[in-house]
Amino acid sequence: MLRFDFDGPAHGILRNHLDLSGTADLEPGAFLADALVDVTDRSDPQVPIADVSDFDELSAPHAYGPAGEIDPCPGVPICGTSTGEFVFGAGYSPPAEHGRVHLRYYFVLRAAHIHYRVNALHGWRLRDYRGTVERITDAQSAGAGAGTFGDEAGALTDVSSSRTTAGTVAIAVPPCEDRGAGTLSLTGGTKSLAVPCGEGPAGAVAYRPVTWHLTGVAAGVSHGRTRLMVLAL
Length: 233
Hints:
- By secondary structure, the chain is mainly β.
- It has one domain.
- 0% of the residues lie in helices and 52% in strands.
- The chain has strands spanning 2-9, 18-25, 31-38, 46-54, 62-64, 85-92, 100-110, 112-121, 124-127, 133-137, 155-160, 168-172, 179-187, 193-196, 202-206, 213-222, 226-232.
- Strand 13 (179-187) and strand 14 form a beta hairpin.
């Protein structure tokens, strides 16, 4: 798990670029998550980048609720990701027009034999970071996935984290992030966050100890089993 900090005036991609890459061996339970937290306005923190990718043997697409005849893998001959070497990369540059900013970028990878290198660190600092990670999947939630390929009105999602001990960023992944219908609610942060279907994961920040909750009714297609990821700030 890596954390990079940027504090200062943003000058754009040529002067403030962060870039890292590497390889790892995938194994059951492997996942990758990253989050960019903008704390420039501490009273209203933003999470413009929030993503989670599951790479274990369960990562083939799954349908929740009345998905009907939706093909979860349109145009893809093979769905899912088998174990093997994984090549990854990540990068970000704050737009120059944003002026002085305070950014925190978190990169989390659970896999075997991870090798990474920082290719560019212009204006960024790699922090000595030993934060915690909590991952809540369908198997730990109350109701998520209960309507797999079913005919009921929808799939109820009721996911909660453990009580945190300090500030955290939460990444919510609805069971319809690829496509579907419905909107979930992520609570516990500085404000409640709507997480609609079809728009991918979303993130929020809490500065104090909280219990995160992701609740609502939604139906659609998801490529993973992670519903909530909580990272220590």
